[in-house]
Amino acid sequence: MTASPAATTIPSSLNPGDLVGPAVLAAENDLIWAEGLIRSGGSGAAALIDKTRVVRGGLAPSAGTLADLQYEQDVELLGSSDAVFYNQRRIDKLEPNTPHEMPIPASELGVLGLRLYTCGGDVHPDGSCDAFPGVVAAPAVVQALVRDAPRVWAQMEAAMREHARVYGWNGRRGVK
């Protein structure tokens, strides 16, 4: 038995990036394949890029270049997930002073016995870091974090399961 199209379509009020699980759009998959073809010297990349560039975008057909691909990724994937940020980071095209890495939470630095730090921004446009000397979590705090971790994870899992029971796995009440 096949599902009806209505049952498999994401409601227009939802963004695929809002769902609980990861979502890879068909367009993103096509663009990943196209990049592989371009970088490996294969053929057929232009046809994959043109699925969104020409059909939906109304632009002239692609020459199958890396520049065409990167433009299409920026336009087509915006709002679908964090793919645009990670793609721009991967090809080193982020706006100046944008952090390339997410910070490690202070509680994790304490467990690891590492000092607090700050990196990048206007103070360090090269991405370098400043460490704050002497700021390391006390051993008792680290022991408590390690001891309580299984209980905290169990609480988080229970909360997630309750949320899924009430709202469904896609996170919206009444949309299942």
Explain this structure to me?
The protein is mainly α and 176 residues long. The protein has 2 domains: 5-90, no CATH class; 106-167, no CATH class. The chain is built from 7 helices and 2 strands. The protein has helices at residues 5-8, 26-40, 45-53, 66-77, 83-90, 106-112, 139-167; strands spanning 117-119, 129-131. Strands 1-2 form a two-stranded antiparallel ribbon. Helix 2 (26-40) runs antiparallel to helix 3 and helix 2 runs antiparallel to helix 4 (66-77). The longest helix is centred in the last third of the chain and has 29 residues, at 139-167. The radius of gyration is 22 Å and the shape is flat. The two termini are 19 Å apart. The model is unreliable at 1-8 (pLDDT under 50).
Give the structure's gist in a few sentences:
This protein has 7 helices and 2 strands, in the order ααααααββα. It has 176 residues and is mainly alpha-helical.
List the helices and strands and how they pair.
Blueprint: H1 5-8, H2 26-40, H3 45-53, H4 66-77, H5 83-90, H6 106-112, E1 117-119, E2 129-131, H7 139-167
Antiparallel strand pairs: 1-2
Query: Which strand order does the major sheet show?
Result: 1-2
Number of helices: 7
What's the overall average pLDDT, rounded?
Answer: 76
Number of structurally distinct domains: 2
Note poorly predicted spans.
1-8
| Termini Cα gap | 19 Å
Decide which structural class fits the backbone: mainly alpha
Strand content: under 5%
Report the C-alpha radius of gyration, rounded. 22 Å
Oligomer: single chain
Could you say which overall geometry the principal axes of the C-alpha atoms support? flat
The helix content is 40-55%
The biggest beta sheet is recorded as: 2 strands, antiparallel
Please write the string of helix (H) and strand (E) elements.
HHHHHHEEH
Count every beta strand, where a strand is a DSSP E run of 2 or more residues.
Answer: 2
